[in-house]
Amino acid sequence: MTGSLQVEMESLVLCGTPAVSGVACAPAVRPGARLRVAESTDSIPEPGRASEQAAFLAAAATVADRLRGRAARAGGAAAEVLAANAAMATDRGWLGVAQKLIAAGTPARAAAVAATDQFAEMFIKLGGLMAERVTDLRDVCDRVVAELAGAPEPGIPVPPEPSILLADDLAPADAAGLDPSLIIGLATSFGGPTSHTAIIARQLGIPCVVAVAGLDAIAAGTPVLLDGSSGRVVIDPDPEVAARAVERFRARTARDAAWTGPGATADGHRVEVLVNVQDGPGAQAARRTPAEGVGLFRTELCFLDRETEPAVAEQERIYREVFDAYAGAKVVIRTLDAGSDKPLRFADHADEANPALGVRGIRIAARDAGILDRQLDAISQAAAGRSPVPWVMAPMISTAAEAESFAEKVRGRGLIPGAMIEVPAAALTAEAILRHVDFLSVGTNDLAQYTMAADRMSPALAALTDPWQPAVLALVARTAAAGQRLGKPVGVCGEAAADPALACVLVGFGVGSLSMAAGAVAAVGAGLAEVTREQCERAATAALAASDPAAARAAVRAFLGWAPGA
């Protein structure tokens, strides 16, 4: 019932798509208005156009520098999206269009907006991952416009007390800057459960519901009860009902905090509980959790916003920082996942009608094998003498032939080869792929998007990109079964692994490792410790038999004895 309205207990209840589990009750707060540029027929005299261009370029460079600085401090998924936005602020195409407009007499602020409108229209027509960059691009434009006007940088206000943020959507720069001690809940009108906003909220441990219709009518200051596990946003809740819901969640959180690992079900079935990281500082921070190792080391950060490819020595240093942070522990590293919404300036990216279905991930190596070869060289050198040997997997594997070629390169460097399962074709042929690699890791974010043919950022389609979708679960189950038949491990490193209830389902399928944002580690580990392997298997059967995500969630939580929000 995504986006529907209902009345419950004399309170207005807005229903959206669950994104990050948790319960919070607090007054609503809203983002501040962004500076808008009114249409103008004024033209800059020709002698002043060069200085206007220079001011525009300086403002864009300042915004890019700020975003890079935040990326360096953020770590994790937030660092990746902030670095991508910094690259967008200095994108030659966008800057070029704006400069041409200024050269023709358009004021810099108006030129920035016009160039943004032009690119936004193009991105929307392309759809898929490119369409989701429109929010990012408009955010970059707003920051540049504010810089040109000498106005404060746009963003989220700092509330005087813990609050629940209600917004249409958040740009990554805003989401990454949220203070979880003050923004204790988040609901958006747009976005999906695997959007950048949801991913960053999960990293920060902020309960989140997306694709909620009716939020525009809720004024700042209104009391709100948000349940990130059921997708409900209750307006003006009964104080006693809200207090009980929050207390139940706090008790659950206290139990989670007491979990110290290692991962296992109540009857001793081992499940590796791992963490997703993106750089050395993020890995060091993740060491404070009970995670047993790294199940997904994203390597994109050192490539994004670069005019030239990072040298092997530089890559080696970055990879070694993560290896050192988890010395003696398992580390699974994903090779460069670029292309589509994360283009590389130094790679030969041709114009594509649909970049989301174009050259990205392992497909870049087909066009320029040197990028992959040099990255594998750097990984091998960083891993020299390390025990255990790092596992290395490629994103966007679609065929057994791609897996075979990649595995040969990885094994030739003394590393353990694997493949990401993000494309339905790969899930359907998982057994053939596993004959060439030693392990599989399911990336449920992209698998959901490609399986359901649904843009992650479309509010109208948010329910389709839910990892609880029966078709998505069926493909994950099929992949896990292939691993069991061949005696090779299958893990999940997408956002689905961060949902304690869904984690039980995945274990029931036969998944042996779960990797997630650091903030989700304790909740998932503690949840698994309360159930047996047989309960997980029966929960998995119940999820597969459900007709839709809501029914699957309800059936599994009821079967496990978990109340909503618990």
Folded structure, characterized:
The chain is globular, with a radius of gyration of 23 Å. Helix content is 45%, strand content 14%. The relative contact order is 0.12. Residues 1-9 have low confidence and may be disordered. The longest helix is centred in the first third of the chain and has 26 residues, at 49-74. The protein is α/β, with parallel strands linked by helices. The strands form two sheets. Strands 1-2-9-8-4-5-6-7-3 form a nine-stranded mixed β-sheet.
Order the strands across the largest sheet as they lie in space: 1-2-9-8-4-5-6-7-3
Q: Count the helices. How many?
A: 22
- List segments where confidence is low: pLDDT < 50 over at least 5 consecutive residues: 1-9
Classify the beta-strand content into a percent band: 5-15%
Average residue-wise pLDDT: 87
Distance between the termini: 21 Å
Residue share in helix: 40-55%
For the report, how would you describe the main beta sheet? 9 strands, mixed
Q: What's the overall geometry?
A: globular
What's the number of extended β-strand segments? Answer: 17
Decide which structural class fits the backbone: alpha/beta
Radius of gyration: 23 Å
